[in-house]
Design goal:
With 133 residues, the protein is of the alpha+beta class. The protein contains five helices and four strands.
């Protein structure tokens, strides 16, 4: 009897682990995937890791602008104190992302925040930050 209850317990535990494991492997929605990548991009800029931030840009953008030039585009990110994805709205293979950036101006001590709106595109199954200029 003890052996049967142990076997049943092992079977139930295995079944439960298998079912709960399925939730871990469910594909993310486009909004979730883009939010995660967009936050990674913001985090890289907060760290002033412009090379890492550049890696989030679309392949087409990389043919037009170098990583060195890209770093100048976000030179002001050194004043950023926090950044978080606030909203992601997707259509087919395109998402509009709003990121709230908090910053502190060192010269005046002013603390403020502003929304940044960015576009993300799906190219070959991967989401990329799309800069028009």
């Amino acid at each position: 009897m003890l052996r049967r209850s142990i076997s049943l317990s092992v079977l139930l535990a295995t079944l439960f682990a298998g079912l709960s494991g399925c939730a871990l492997f469910e594909p993310k929605s486009d909004e979730e995937a883009v939010a995660q990548r967009a936050q990674g991009w913001v985090d890289a800029l907060l760290e002033q890791d412009y090379t890492a931030a550049y890696e989030f840009t679309s392949p087409g953008f990389k043919t037009r602008e170098s990583a060195r030039k890209y770093s100048k585009r976000y030179a002001g990110s050194g004043m950023w104190t926090k950044g978080a994805v606030e909203k992601v709205v997707c259509e087919v293979d395109s998402c509009n992302v709003t990121v709230k950036i908090h910053y502190k101006m060192k010269s005046s001590g002013i603390i403020a925040s502003l929304p940044m709106k960015e576009n993300w595109l799906k190219v070959d199954g991967q989401w990329w930050l799309y800069h028009t200029k």
